[in-house]
Design goal:
alpha/beta; 2-enoyl-CoA Hydratase, Chain A, domain 1; Lyase 2-enoyl-coa Hydratase, Chain  A, domain 2; 2 domains; seven-stranded mixed β-sheet; three-stranded mixed β-sheet; 10 helices
Length: about 260
């Protein structure tokens, strides 16, 4: 099923046995899926208004690239105040991806550049195929990241690597990018979406409250001092295990009705 979105440059479909997976496709292949304001605002609206039946989402790009960044052809001259508000608009939109209602898996191929890398870094799991490459060319263009990249990307690869990328224009290929931390999975070319969808189906089968805790509590715990983190963890653990679904799942395991962990 496909739903109409506010921008023609982004499409929303539903997949899975019960239509529980939202598939969000960037659809500007002629522009290498470069991001304009309409697309960013549509992305915000999609995640703000996600149907309650959805349990996970996949973001991918149409054509040869995931996203080549900000559409510089639409870049307007702005004073400092206007520039700040434009950046904050991006922040609000990508906040809905990272801290929205469902876990989000990014399927990466081709260019994952500039604003495209900022979008990917707001997702919870990243799957790259061997055509993927990563860059932050803002430094050479006289601008600075404005879509949350200075906060999210160093958490994936470290401040030193991001500094190097912006100072020198360094480009990471798929293999080096996986080792650096851009993606958690690396698959053969053309298979990123298939792998991302399979992961989304697995994630959608989890207890919703556990997924919520991983999306909203875990990153905040990681930023807290240890004593506060331990207390937040205790509260979240108590809430999660009190849910009826959690009790049912634990009971099924104890009765031998649930699969045990294996290395396969």
């Amino acid at each position: 099923m496909t739903l109409k979105t506010p921008s023609k440059d982004i499409q929303l479909e539903f997949a899975g046995k019960h239509q529980e997976i939202a598939v969000v496709r960037l659809s500007r292949p002629a522009k290498r899926n470069a991001v304009n304001d309409a697309l960013v605002l549509s992305l915000r609206d999609i995640f703000q208004n996600m149907p309650a039946s959805v349990r996970a989402a996949v973001i991918h790009g149409e054509g040869a690239h995931f996203c080549a960044g900000l559409d510089l052809g639409e870049l307007q001259e702005r004073d400092a105040g206007q520039g700040m508000l434009h950046s904050r608009m991006w922040h609000a939109a990508l906040e809905q991806v990272q801290y929205g209602p469902v876990p989000v898996i990014a399927a990466l191929h081709g260019a994952v550049v500039g604003g495209g890398l900022e979008l990917a870094s707001a997702c919870h799991i990243r799957v790259a195929d061997k055509s993927a490459f990563y860059a932050l060319p803002e430094g050479s263009r006289g601008i600075f990241v404005g879509g949350g990249g200075s906060v999210r990307i160093p958490k994936l690869i470290g401040v030193a690597r991001m500094t190097d990328m912006m100072l020198t224009g360094r480009v990471y290929n798929a293999e080096d990018g996986e080792r650096a931390g851009f993606a958690q999975y690396l698959v053969p070319e053309g298979q990123a979406f298939e792998k991302a969808l399979a992961l989304a189906e697995r994630v959608a089968a989890n207890a919703p409250l556990t997924n919520y805790a991983l999306m909203h509590a875990l990153p905040r715990i990681a930023e807290q001092p240890a004593d506060q983190g331990f207390f937040t963890e205790a509260l979240m653990a108590a809430i999660a295990q009190s849910a009826p679904e959690a009790k049912t799942r634990v009971r099924a395991f104890l009765e031998g009705k649930a699969n045990k962990v294996s290395k396969d």
